[in-house]
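Let's do one together. I've listed all components of the complex below, 2032 residues spread over eight lines.
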Amino acid sequence: MDVKALLEAVKNGQISVAQAEEMLKGLPYDDMGFAMVDNHRKLRTGFAEVIFCQGKTPAQAAAIAKNLARGGGNVLATRAEPEHYDAIKGVLSGAVYNEAARTVYIEQTPPEKIGTVAVCTAGTSDIPVAEEAAVTAEAFGCDVTRIFDVGVAGIHRLFDKLDTIRKANVVIAVAGMEGALASVIGGLVERPVIAVPTSIGYGANFGGLSALLTMLNSCSAGVGVVNIDNGFGAGYLAGQINRLLHDKMTERGV
Amino acid sequence: MDVKALLEAVKNGQISVAQAEEMLKGLPYDDMGFAMVDNHRKLRTGFAEVIFCQGKTPAQAAAIAKNLARGGGNVLATRAEPEHYDAIKGVLSGAVYNEAARTVYIEQTPPEKIGTVAVCTAGTSDIPVAEEAAVTAEAFGCDVTRIFDVGVAGIHRLFDKLDTIRKANVVIAVAGMEGALASVIGGLVERPVIAVPTSIGYGANFGGLSALLTMLNSCSAGVGVVNIDNGFGAGYLAGQINRLLHDKMTERGV
Amino acid sequence: MDVKALLEAVKNGQISVAQAEEMLKGLPYDDMGFAMVDNHRKLRTGFAEVIFCQGKTPAQAAAIAKNLARGGGNVLATRAEPEHYDAIKGVLSGAVYNEAARTVYIEQTPPEKIGTVAVCTAGTSDIPVAEEAAVTAEAFGCDVTRIFDVGVAGIHRLFDKLDTIRKANVVIAVAGMEGALASVIGGLVERPVIAVPTSIGYGANFGGLSALLTMLNSCSAGVGVVNIDNGFGAGYLAGQINRLLHDKMTERGV
Amino acid sequence: MDVKALLEAVKNGQISVAQAEEMLKGLPYDDMGFAMVDNHRKLRTGFAEVIFCQGKTPAQAAAIAKNLARGGGNVLATRAEPEHYDAIKGVLSGAVYNEAARTVYIEQTPPEKIGTVAVCTAGTSDIPVAEEAAVTAEAFGCDVTRIFDVGVAGIHRLFDKLDTIRKANVVIAVAGMEGALASVIGGLVERPVIAVPTSIGYGANFGGLSALLTMLNSCSAGVGVVNIDNGFGAGYLAGQINRLLHDKMTERGV
Amino acid sequence: MDVKALLEAVKNGQISVAQAEEMLKGLPYDDMGFAMVDNHRKLRTGFAEVIFCQGKTPAQAAAIAKNLARGGGNVLATRAEPEHYDAIKGVLSGAVYNEAARTVYIEQTPPEKIGTVAVCTAGTSDIPVAEEAAVTAEAFGCDVTRIFDVGVAGIHRLFDKLDTIRKANVVIAVAGMEGALASVIGGLVERPVIAVPTSIGYGANFGGLSALLTMLNSCSAGVGVVNIDNGFGAGYLAGQINRLLHDKMTERGV
Amino acid sequence: MDVKALLEAVKNGQISVAQAEEMLKGLPYDDMGFAMVDNHRKLRTGFAEVIFCQGKTPAQAAAIAKNLARGGGNVLATRAEPEHYDAIKGVLSGAVYNEAARTVYIEQTPPEKIGTVAVCTAGTSDIPVAEEAAVTAEAFGCDVTRIFDVGVAGIHRLFDKLDTIRKANVVIAVAGMEGALASVIGGLVERPVIAVPTSIGYGANFGGLSALLTMLNSCSAGVGVVNIDNGFGAGYLAGQINRLLHDKMTERGV
Amino acid sequence: MDVKALLEAVKNGQISVAQAEEMLKGLPYDDMGFAMVDNHRKLRTGFAEVIFCQGKTPAQAAAIAKNLARGGGNVLATRAEPEHYDAIKGVLSGAVYNEAARTVYIEQTPPEKIGTVAVCTAGTSDIPVAEEAAVTAEAFGCDVTRIFDVGVAGIHRLFDKLDTIRKANVVIAVAGMEGALASVIGGLVERPVIAVPTSIGYGANFGGLSALLTMLNSCSAGVGVVNIDNGFGAGYLAGQINRLLHDKMTERGV
Amino acid sequence: MDVKALLEAVKNGQISVAQAEEMLKGLPYDDMGFAMVDNHRKLRTGFAEVIFCQGKTPAQAAAIAKNLARGGGNVLATRAEPEHYDAIKGVLSGAVYNEAARTVYIEQTPPEKIGTVAVCTAGTSDIPVAEEAAVTAEAFGCDVTRIFDVGVAGIHRLFDKLDTIRKANVVIAVAGMEGALASVIGGLVERPVIAVPTSIGYGANFGGLSALLTMLNSCSAGVGVVNIDNGFGAGYLAGQINRLLHDKMTERGV
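Okay, and this is what the predicted structure of the assembly comes out as:
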């Protein structure tokens, strides 16, 4: 539930006070038996709760989605299989499925624009994780530029795109195998870099461990790492950084 | 070498054109035989090169420090043993040693203020790593608030400090043992959180691996992780975020 | 076989001496060829043998269940697939299947009440493991309170339930991902805490290793850890603690 | 600080109200700059804070010890090197050092007796860890029986002591190398077993990992595991179990 | 190919010299293109080559089996799926499949009896690995006694069988989970013990790693360890030990 | 795209200047949206880009293959499932599938012969990886001799082939299980040895880790290791070595 | 204590019945407070208890040695530092120190000869572990042939010694780095092979893990593995095998 | 012993036939008791045996060095501490110590020039490993160009040196931390690249494991990896490649 959106709807007369009262019963969280939906999270951490579908039944995911959608806020679900999408679509007709990213997104109000993100991948196989990052960042109001397949095996491809990358507020570097992309970008840009190791590869990549260690040990400073394949986490952190910027700008009336 | 500082000194007549010419010979890097000092880094990534003393002789560290100090910029050395400090002090008299953080800092020009950082630790033993983060962030122009020993074994201590923590642009969470601090803070603040696992602990902490995995697997989103004991990396990344803010503010003339 | 229950049945005339003699042939264990059923265990360790179905055929599980059910005691089977349940149901009509917990339970005599347990989970996905713990503890005579989805990403949900948690004799904390729940609870209650890491998560959680290490390295004392996903072990240990209490109370005639 | 002990001293006239007021300023914690001493812990978790000396300077340890000793409670410090002992002895004359256990203990009031613990080791080399467990349990009011060198290589030694072990409320099994002791004891007693893996051994024991995995995978149920070499944690958990018993007995007026 | 058996057949007139000449073409190995069948192995290491079916097509396995069967020796295939059995049966009609052990065995001449082996398992789930060991040892001429489900959770079951176990020349201890069985047996018998860790278990057993480390770190001496689930290796080594005995006896004319 | 082949076609009048101009638009790379095809690679590293099919859809693989085939060069795709082959065959009729190696190869111009390679395997199960190495080396112009199933369990088979192996310029040693083959060959030949660990085996081979560590720790010098199961990498490196030889010979006019 | 030796001394009149009675008080074990000396072990497992000095003080080692020496049996101490030797020598004047093997041996009666062992090493650096194996086997009555520095990097050295190796009843293969020696020997001899991985090496040998995995994954069957650097365990197991032979021979009156 | 050099000395009359006969007694190896010096190695693998000093006493190292120096060949010792150097210098006066590389080299005949190698490092701290590689390659007749401190954090430094690097026959890339240098170079040059991970770094680099995994997973093909810190292995392999070139050139009379 997006409390701020709800209150504005009340103010604008879109929702009656009685309706709002009913809706607000779920504050600070709704005890749904199997889940305690954290309706308070947006006030506390800036973004509403996101549904992590893995390990949840389609019915559970749909019930939580419906709960979160009350009041007009946007809802994002990650690691969503087609079955999750079907169930959510059944209760929220505007749901959109991004197959590569495995996300379901219900946009009831376009998010306020808060800043720019460049999402880069080393290879074609890293695209699903990158898409999860991009969709997440977009849901939180970021403008996302996608720059795929610019890994260090053909580093001239990266250099060609460097001007574009340097224009973004935040850079997300998604790479599997040896994960060197994050270090190279970290040495070339003056903006925060978020590194996402992927489990792409074979042999001694041990499910993404090789890329993870590479990124943690990056000789370039200014690189923060999220979990293997965690595109969502990277998109969220990029959103946090851009929202910091946006809030400070707003405070100053810019 | 701080190229911008140098050029301003030329403009202000503090340095003659001939002197500056001599100094600029080291662009884009100085080949010192054992090291190629990256004088171009500040232009490229926003911060000047920092000396990582581990594995370098005191003489090497001092030579690089002297090289970097030309032109009036500030110089930071990390993982500095007292011998490194002694050697640097011998060539740069204003060097200051922070024993806990194991840093040497030579400030020739106060850095421009770019934003705020809160550095939190779970325990007393995490302080050295936290100090490295704090000193680094300060060297890059951040205002740092230190909040130590607020781990989750006595979580009321953390709650007492929450208002202070929430005021910072960026939060650095430093924790060893099980490293739960980052998750708890990540669930409570709306700003980017940088998590630093430390190697503090015993038994199955495996040199910080337990805290590292905890932080990577954090159930709270918006957390970027740096390497074990890498206070420097966290301070640097916090600096990158604050500088993004500062640059954008400056562009808008705020 | 529940020897004590059998002897009481003899005393009460429910079973003849000859029948009991036949039944007692299986002491201290029954050699079934593929298994040596440990009918002596209840006398020795306080609880009857439990059937671990994984790696056993449905027929084997059913045969052992039937053997253990002689004499009127209760029988618990864990890691039971529907096929195991079907086979057991075929020989013991009162068998009840808990799908989430994957347990089969045959209650022939209600267990004596021995104390209270609170079973908490960090997330919705941890519920199957928590249910295994709860069902096990209940089978051994514990009163179980279930408190699900109170992980540290929304820590206010945990604080709301703290009074309830504090009332239990023993607390079981079930958590995957970073597993911080056990540390936070351990710092807030004055009762033994049993931590169960789960394999829920992705990326660098390595099948539950991240939560396991977190729990072993907990900065809060008073936390005992069982194996990954081992809800049964946690429920059993909680039963042992409550039975200690019950036995001592009984000794003192309370 | 032992708040209950302090209040009783006030009631008994041993401490004036003004003195007590001064002392209570440290509630719920004392901010000592480098440490936030958790004076509230005893009320919250049943036992006062214990000083973990590793990573603390002798002076820090002594300052915290002095702070905790106010009001007449007992103070325990673990992982204490002789230097820590010397510093603590300098501020608290009654400090006693246990060299094997590496503990410092200051007893100002004999702890109330709460129950019994048997501490068993597999070998002679496991004794230091076992002593840490024993000293901790004693400090919290447990009566401890020590049974050392009864590992499974000569299992008749264990069987000889079985009657003694079975009499205890809680059994702590301390073992390195392959750590089989916990499984064997777990299969023989009807009380909670706390397993402590030790780092004793060589080759592929990997600093205690082999014993840790053995204990986590124990085929005997009812075994809770603490971190490698964590005698303190085992003694503390044994104390929690016995205190549960003691509190319930007291409630019932036994 | 069993060269000795072949030569005896020549001597006895069962095979003509011309036939034998043809057959001996495959010495010291047959180059089958995809495999070099090591017909010389029996002369060199005492036992004929065994077919490891995993990773081989049924047709390849059958072709190798046929090749090895020439000359009248016995043939053993391990890790054989039913498809392998079907293919082998198609070319060698006397093939016998042991489903639990996943072995195919073609006995053309009963092996000479060379000594005794006791194969013990900790649990029911370890039986497949134990059967592989037993079948292998039998194929090499050992008399095998099977003693299953005598793990340390109910150690009285083991003690009951101790006399039987002690009578064997060699003891094979097969155990998963924590694998303590090998240590306990090693401390009780005066014969060589071969320990086989199995991948049975869950959670932190990491595919048998926990049992493997337990066995390598056994506090009982006289224990040799083979790879996880490697029943074949254990049976083979037991065969080597018994054959040593048999050969020496034969030398002495006993 | 093979730029040199293209230019020669222009020179020979096989392709018009206008056609060539169109084709060269893809230099230095073609941005296909999901992939940036590195047409410049052959000029830079000596061999054209190879399509790694794993993680790519058949359609993507086919599109890249078509792109690379322009201008008449040869195209190699690895880790190709039958579906990839079908898709590629649909756009490039001359495509040849090697089922064991899982490669698709389109030869438009026979590659220039550059030198010899011996590809050895320890066992039959290592053949697929060895074939990938062989096919790759052949595509780059090497003459390959295959020597399979010469592992150290029957070392006489290796010695028989030693003269053949010693004649090759480069030796590729492919082995799973304990991977000793590389060390043994490394101690016997005076040519560069490329070791390829395979994931063949069971138990504690941990997906090829055992063979990888063996090869990295080889007591024989002159051995370079590639990733587990990475036949392609070994074939490529062998090609690089032979091409060095070929180029130098050509320079000298030999 | 060697009970059989003691009884023979009684029979021969070397010890009076009263003395023997006093000595036998320590059966089945002596409770020395810090250690329970297992005087019964020789009767049970064939060899007397051996003192593992690591983790024991010199005084403890000496006290145990003295205890074990009663009755005229031989005493072996392993992992003995010079300080342990000095202490033991103080109470048992005939103690002999083997510096390479770090063993102390007190021979009061020459052990009966039970069979032959060949101890082979891959390199010079493996000699200390090999010596521990050799000294142990000798103490248990084996005739030991030492064959050092025959690793596979120069395999002709091994082949030269093959006849000697093949003559032994049992072969111990000691190797660090990649540990291939055990596989090669296992493929060449028809006797049981005991493999001892050593921690010799650097880089990715991870304290002997590389050699350990190699040996466990040996493609040659008939190889039993002991813990890293565990020369004692290998010597003991070789002794068990030879004693089996010796006992059976004796039974048959050979 | 350099057999070819010896025979040439005989031919030239520098050594008498009788002297040569005496010297040749050590063929194919010298049994020195603790070591079997492999005098045959140069004939077999192209380079003479090199002394790995780690784990050898200075006296042993010196004795082997003296043995190898007979006949006029050159001798190389690696991992040599100053004590090893002192001992070797005592028996071979021309010994030269390279402190950074920890090598001792005795050159009695300048090695024939066989080709070029470029040795690159990512940082200053990687120089010792790079020097070991360089010294080794030089001892085997390579011309070595050293290019240090060109890691990817300041990638323009690498690009400046690219022309120099591309001129070498073989490139050795030495890097710790995240080890990305090998991938970047592999994507830019058309020559074989040998990657050497170093143990330089901190935190989750796990003694070089991070760089090792990076290099094994390199997205650039044509990269062979040697063990962590194994500069010797890299130099040796580079020598093998250059010698292949040299031999083939010589065969053709170039």
